Amino acid sequence: MVARGYRSPVRARHAEDTRRSIVEAAAELFAEQGYARTSVAAVAAAAGVAVNTVYTSVGNKSALIMAMSEDGAADAVAVEAERRIGECEDPREILRILADGTGRVRRSRQKALEILLDNRNADPDVAAAADLATRAVRGRFEVVAARLVAVGGLREGLTREQVEQALWFYFGFEAWRTVRGFGWSWEDSAAWLAEQSARTLLPVTG
User: Fold this and answer.
1) Can you tell me the distance from the alpha carbon of 51 to that of 67, in angstroms, rounded to the nearest whole number?
2) What is the pLDDT of residues 134-152, one digit of tens each?
3) What DSSP letter does each residue of 68-88 carry, written as one string?
4) Mean pLDDT, to the nearest integer, of 177-193?
5) Residue 2: which residues within 8 A CB-CB, separation 6 or more?
6) CB 81 within 8 A of CB 94
7) Is there a contact between 200 and 167 (Cβ–Cβ < 8 Å)?
8) Cα–Cα distance measured from residue 194 to residue 35, given in angstroms and rounded to the nearest whole number
9) Packing angle between helix 160-171 and helix 173-181, nearest 10 degrees?
10) CB–CB of 64/57 below 8 Å?
């Protein structure tokens, strides 16, 4: 009889907490001193773990930057927003949910995203992580675009591809960077982006 493997829930939680601490420490250091100048040893010291723990929990430096991107792609707020959009029948409300969700993710992941956006042309590891983040967001926008087309109520003649492109224009990385650069609050930014996207995608009323 083959014995079944057993993984303690306590150990699993501890391992996940350790991984999270390491990735967060890496993000802080990448932001403060740059990706190229940050060593795995420095990350280990900042996270309060042994260097070998960084390698066994996450991996080398390229794995650390990729883990930052993967964590952002799997953000629970984004997953929940996508679920709510899948149940919503009102295109204007769908855009409002998307504005709120992308804004909350951008706010919580701001440091990691700035690292990716500002350094993607300087290092192939960062470029790969930035590409992963972009694919993840655009993949979600494709799902939202398909939902908007299925729900109906869009301007006549819009294709799903055009809707997805509009969503990227209004809710992608650079859109949030632009409106926040004006000094607007997160709430005002989300409201403005939702309204502008509605003007582009929905018929004019009144």
Assistant:
1) 17
2) 999 999 999 999 999 999 9
3) HHHHHHT-HHHHHHHHHHHH-
4) 96
5) none
6) no
7) no
8) 34
9) 40
10) no
